[in-house]
């Protein structure tokens, strides 16, 4: 008698199962990393205690975590929007960079507008930069069915090279040894929330998530996106303009990634720096996937991922190599993604009787 296994899709995925599965595989990831940390001569318990306590149980750690979640949140919302239509926007990294470039151009060369109007104009410029960069891929995809995965990915490199050139060249601050601009002029900074010193950009991120959630649930656009996602044939039969929806989804997605640059520039760093996106666009793909494309879940997952990134950096002061800190972050991501598979499928043992 042979014993084999087959996979079967689970009909229902409850919230409790989702949370428990993610927690289980996070613990497994930490256990796997703990073996490597111990083999490197460090105490895993001490390392993990410092990671958690410094980020999740101190005011400074929580503030930095919320600030770090802003670009992840906006990029993830944009990526999830295209995934909703079976479009693969792999270009949030470049759209983020282009949004920062457009915003920087307004701050340095645009009219002197301060206060709320100035911040609004800065946000519009950043959104426009990301949207226009996405439009370069949206039109070929809609009109000639050019693969958007390739075009969005390739445009990342061009945008990042342009950003590096500006930060190391004409926009480089005087007397700086690194590629970054002068500090954002007064009047364009996003204000902090009360005495918490958390950027008010977190409010913009949450509001954006709520708006997108309402679009999915209560608007014609959301309904059309769902129809296009599951069957383009049915969408054509219903008279839905597929080309227009493809362009609209990619443009809004790119705009949200560009807006992420605004929140980082005006709300956190106050400067434009070489390599400023810092892989937020790529991490957004993982966050969108783990969040099941749910805008409200993206808020929570983005904050947790930001905490994970910051906690990896805190252990470096203990002498833990950068590679190990990065390994912890990557391993948890891989294990949680693997856990999602077991959440969607279950293995059933099948007995085969030999004749």
How would you sum up this structure, described in words?
The protein is mainly alpha-helical. The chain has a single domain (43-318), classed as ABC transporter involved in vitamin B12 uptake, BtuC (Orthogonal Bundle). Helix content is 70%, strand content 6%. The chain is built from 13 helices and four strands. The protein has helices at 15-39, 44-56, 59-83, 92-109, 115-144, 148-168, 201-218, 220-230, 232-237, 242-269, 280-290, 295-314, 322-344, and strands spanning 2-9, 192-193, 198-199, 345-352. The strands form two sheets. It has a two-stranded antiparallel sheet with strand order 1-4. Helix 4 packs parallel to helix 6 and helix 4 packs across helix 11. The chain is globular and about 75 Å long. The model has no long low-confidence stretch (mean pLDDT 90).
Strand content: 5-15%
What order do the helices and strands follow?
EHHHHHHEEHHHHHHHE
**Describe the biggest sheet?**
2 strands, antiparallel
By CATH, the architecture is named Orthogonal Bundle
CATH class: Mainly Alpha
Q: Supply Rg.
A: 22 Å
What is the residue-averaged pLDDT?
A: 90
Give the domain tally. Answer: 1
Features:
single chain, mainly alpha, ABC transporter involved in vitamin B12 uptake, BtuC, two-stranded antiparallel sheet, two-stranded antiparallel ribbon, 4 strands
């Amino acid at each position: 008698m042979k014993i084999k296994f087959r996979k079967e899709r689970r009909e229902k995925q409850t919230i409790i199962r989702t949370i428990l599965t993610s927690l289980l595989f996070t613990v497994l990831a930490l256990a796997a990393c703990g073996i490597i940390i111990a083999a490197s001569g460090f105490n895993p318990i001490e390392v993990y205690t410092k990671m958690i306590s410094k980020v999740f149980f101190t005011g400074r750690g929580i503030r930095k975590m919320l600030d770090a979640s802003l670009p992840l949140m906006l990029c993830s919302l944009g990526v999830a929007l295209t995934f909703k239509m079976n479009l693969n926007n792999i270009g949030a990294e470049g759209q983020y960079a282009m949004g920062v470039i457009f915003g920087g151009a307004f701050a340095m060369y645009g009219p002197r507008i301060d206060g709320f109007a100035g911040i609004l104009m800065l946000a519009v410029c950043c959104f426009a930069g990301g949207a226009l960069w996405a439009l370069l891929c949206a039109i070929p995809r809609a009109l000639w069915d050019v693969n958007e995965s390739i075009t969005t990915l390739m445009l990342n490199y061009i945008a990042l090279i342009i950003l590096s050139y500006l930060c190391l060249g004409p926009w480089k601050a005087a007397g700086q040894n690194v590629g970054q601009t002068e500090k954002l002029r007064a009047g364009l900074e996003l204000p902090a929330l009360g005495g918490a010193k958390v950027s008010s950009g977190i409010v913009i991120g949450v509001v954006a998530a709520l708006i997108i959630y309402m679009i999915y649930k209560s608007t014609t656009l959301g309904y059309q996106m769902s129809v296009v996602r599951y069957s383009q044939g049915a969408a054509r039969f219903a008279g839905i303009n597929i080309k227009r929806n493809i362009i609209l989804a990619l443009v809004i997605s790119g705009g949200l990634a560009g807006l992420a640059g605004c929140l980082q520039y005006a709300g956190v760093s106050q400067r434009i720096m070489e390599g400023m996106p810092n892989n937020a666009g790529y991490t957004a793909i993982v966050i969108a996937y783990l969040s099941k494309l749910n805008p409200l879940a993206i808020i929570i997952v983005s904050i947790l991922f930001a905490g994970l990134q910051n906690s990896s950096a805190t252990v470096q002061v203990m002498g833990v190599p950068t590679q190990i800190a990065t390994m912890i972050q990557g391993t948890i991501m891989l294990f949680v993604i693997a856990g999602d598979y077991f959440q969607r499928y279950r293995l059933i043992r099948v007995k085969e009787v030999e004749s």
